[in-house]
Structure of Uu.00g131040.m01.CDS01:
Amino acid sequence: MEYPPRKHHRLRREPTIPDGAVACESARRKGMMRELKGLGTPIYKHAEHERDLANYELLEGDLLEKYPSRANQDKRKQNMVHFDIDPPNIFIGGLELDRAGRGLWRNTRSEAKAKANGASTEPDKSTEKATDKATEKATDKATDKAPEKTTKGAVKDTAEKDGASSKDKGGKTNPLRVIHGQQNRNPTEEMGAFACSSTQECIRQAKRNVYYLNRRWKAKHGFHAPKEQFGPEWDKIPDRPHGPELVESNIAANYRSHTNVWGIAWTMWILITKYYPPTPPQPQPPYDLPVADPRLTDEAIELSGRSHVISYCPFFLDPANTDYDYVDIRLRQTISQCMSHDPGWRPSLKHLEYQATQIVRNAAFLGETDEYVRRWVHYWLYEAPSTSGPGGPTGTSGKAKGFGGGGGGAPVNKLEENLASKKDPDHPIRIQLQIQYNASFPYGHDRIPNAAVNLDCGFRALVDSIQAQIGPNPLIGGVPTAIVLPRNGDLRTIYNNPKAAGEFDVLVLLNEANEDEESNYFLSELSLVLVRWGESVGLSLQLCYILEGRGRPMREPVEDQNPRNLWIYNDNAMDLAGASYNHYEGIRARPRPASPAGGAGTGVKEGADPDDLPDYESD
């Protein structure tokens, strides 16, 4: 964005031969050079024209966004900011198929259709050949150019001949088509919506407050940049439309290339997670710091930002979340850095380009031939299966079909992993749950006693925990949403329906081997009830529990990715009347403890004995 594409770049102009021009080689051979120059007849060099034409066809459609030479950087530098960088405005170029690619694409498609229909997987050679000829004939007619022969006699395929032309019938460029990328083996991402002046402009310097204030709202909901467009710094700006405070600020309204980096990072985050950005943005403290209270205030963010980086990138570096471990850790770290609260911590576009180039050059893509990469790109971009969460496009089994991609695929079977974690207090799942528990209950928890009749303490525990941990107005999709809290009868109704259908039979078999969970209700049953209730109100929930005497917390896994944890307490099956029963209780977060004796807010006067009993109010 600092060096936007030049509309009249010399390489954009198609080389043409002037009317009446004579080839230099022909004129020299016939001894007519002096006469032609005297008559003013244009003379051109055929070899140079062919070279320029080949370069033009190679770069046709390219935005030519390479960094300019050092001598021209100051002259060409512009402060262009695009306030609408999101996935719908990202075009991917460089995916055009050559002749071999079209054949491979048709074969793959035919095999998939044949498998679905139970027919033979042998592609139709005659149809394939006829389609190839028809495509080339139509393309040649549309471009009004014959296939150009290279020095080796091979047919030179251009992007237009592969059916990916970016031009309409009239020959004018259609901005709604895919923008062709740089001419290399990797797909190129290009920005769209440049014609919309309300979202993209060159920010001017030394303007009044109202100029920068009017650009504060320019972004989609959920994509506003911190510090530049929101943050505590704006509260310190006086209400003076014609004042100079914003132009003198290096934080609020500091719209520069780092604002574009913020939008690019959110786009990458969305493409990986398949989620919308959290609204409002949630600051993520460094996970290696002993943070007692994860709910960062504006003051805490400002103070923390002086010693370490505060990012708004959730999930990617969270040690309690392994759903995105299949993504290269360097990419996740870079995306997190691009979402830093302080724009000064975000990398520049030039640094990002250099970093990506170095990683691609130095990476050892073992076993990944060009053919493998081509098939991988065709599959995921043209026939990607549907998905409901992180881990890349997945099928019903949760594993990617066909290709694993660079770094693996979906996580291992949750049921087997969860059973192993119940036997090992130091299992990674238990450690992750302990981290999540510490974040949800920074000062510990208090149990909510209940005396439910008919051994319904499990339902009562769910009701109490939902009221204490979720409340009537939880955030759903980043928006506070009013929900109806459940009662015992509501959960029992949810329980009776699947029980009558036999859905709990398999849960009984799974739990028979675990004597610690033999009880009035299995935890697996309570988990299913909780999940069904959560689905009814739009919440993705997972049951986590503290089992007395078993160390770190445990969980009942669910299929959803990144569910919200609901915590309950289990007394670990006490003996009652010759049978083993569990008693469940809900839990609530313990409030922040009072300050030390003699400190502010304790009610203890300075110099007084902190061990003295407090006086009654009546005294």
